[in-house]
Amino acid sequence: MSEALDTVRLVLPFPPTSNNLFINVRGAGRVRSTAYRKWAADAGWRLQAQRPAKLKGPVNVTILLCPPTKRRADADNRLKAPLDLLVTHGVIEGDDSRYVRSVTARWVDQGEPCSVIVESVP
């Protein structure tokens, strides 16, 4: 397999915090929040426009975050939405331990709001 197909690089909108992804709805249980649904739709269109390869098997994921404000935030709370998006759009087969072997989150001072790098594990 060529190097290009072993690595996928994506640019996404800044992900919502995992604290606000789901809400409790009487009679329906936990459902996606409006903000999460909007982010997932926007991010999904952006992902599809980039036409990423679909990686099979285990991967390492690096997520670079450039926050839109100076407000304090936890990087680990910004991982679930992008990982779920990768699964939903078939970029990776799953986000459990069989497939995602490592996840690295890093704050950056400039650049895209959210850059995702997915690399196949040999």
**Spatial arrangement of strands, main beta sheet:** 1-6-4-5
The geometry reads as globular
Category from helices, strands and their pairing:
alpha+beta
* Pattern of helices and strands: HEEEHEHEE
How large is the share of residues in beta strands? 25-35%
What is the mean predicted local confidence, pLDDT? 93
Helix content: 10-25%
Q: Alpha-carbon distance between the termini?
A: 11 Å
Characterize the main sheet.
Answer: 4 strands, mixed
Number of H/I helices: 3
Number of strands: 6
Low-confidence stretches: none
The radius of gyration over CA amounts to: 15 Å
Give the SSE map.
Elements lengths: L2 H4 E6 L9 E4 L3 E4 L1 H16 L9 E7 L14 H9 L11 E8 L6 E7 L2
Parallel strand pairs: 4-5
Antiparallel strand pairs: 1-6, 2-3, 4-6
Q: Overview of this structure, please?
A:
The protein has 122 residues and is α+β, with helices and mostly antiparallel strands. 24% of the residues lie in helices and 30% in strands. The protein is built from three helices and six strands, in the order H-E-E-E-H-E-H-E-E. The protein has helices at 3-6, 34-49, 80-88, and strands spanning 7-12, 22-25, 29-32, 59-65, 100-107, 114-120. Strand 2 and strand 3 form a beta hairpin.
Give a concise summary:
The protein has 122 residues and is α+β, with helices and mostly antiparallel strands. It has 3 helices and 6 strands. β4, α3 and β5 form a beta-alpha-beta unit.
